[in-house]
Amino acid sequence: MDNQAEVRAFLRSRRDKITPEEVGLPSYGNRRVSGLRRSEVAMLAGVSVEYYTRLERGNLGGVSEGVLDALAQALRLDDTERRHLDDLARAANTPPARAKRQPVRTGVRPSVARIVEGMPGLPAFVQNNRFDILVCNPLGRALYSEMYADPACGANTARFVFLSPAARRFYTDWERIARGAVGALRIEAGKNPYDRELSNLIGELSTRSDAFRVLWGAHDVHVFREGRKRFNHPLVGDLELDHESMDLPGDSGLIIAAYSAAPGTAAEDALKLLASWSAPSEAPLDTEANSES
């Protein structure tokens, strides 16, 4: 990824979202910008117009933590956006020749695979920062059966969201899921600008999906933590499930994700039905490689 282009587009997109009235500035004259002027951001951040112009042109070289704090306040960045700005600044201050991309595991430790397999009543899987599902238990495969049935997805949930016709039916809140996926990929691109496989995935989705390309152009960021998702499963119908994502210490870029249904709900009954449907096959744990790499 081009760090300067990312910085330039991100700062400009945040500036465009804020009106003078929102930050207590008077609005006068014929404004040719949709949000704040550069001079207004510079004033709010306490830096010169020339210096802010340099930053917005993508040059974060040598920028201090204090200036980043001031920019975050001036542009009203939330915590996720601020961390993304930090990632962009860190990449800008690491010469490409010395930049060391942290490797993303292509395999999963056997102990982690056993944890996923040991939750037969919950759809659970291990995913990397490129949305590849590396290990998935039988109930997880049953939940995402349409993704696994589509060879074009390659057990990648981002490809499923944007490239599979089934996804818009499967995700009841498809637009929210799509925005979240794009925002999460942008976070990862900021953290790992030299991850070629990540860049290739983003390029593929930009080329093949108009929806992805439009959302990518918004430069929004997102972090998946916990929440609730609604599905329309082809076998059991509507499902409203809580999800949790947990980072794996020592395994950079890997998370365990699991879904559960609130007790006494229709979703709990549907999940039990789905579990009974997936149990007779006694399918082995889906994993391409469950050894350390």
UniProtKB/TrEMBL annotation:
Coiled coil ranges: none
Family matches, as InterPro entries: Cro/C1-type_HTH (IPR001387), Lambda_DNA-bd_dom_sf (IPR010982), MLTR_LBD (IPR041413)
Domain HTH cro/C1-type as annotated: residue spans: 35-82
Pfam families, alphabetized: HTH_31, MLTR_LBD
Any one GO molecular-function label of the UniProt entry: DNA binding
The protein's name: Transcriptional regulator with XRE-family HTH domain
Organism: Streptomyces griseoloalbus
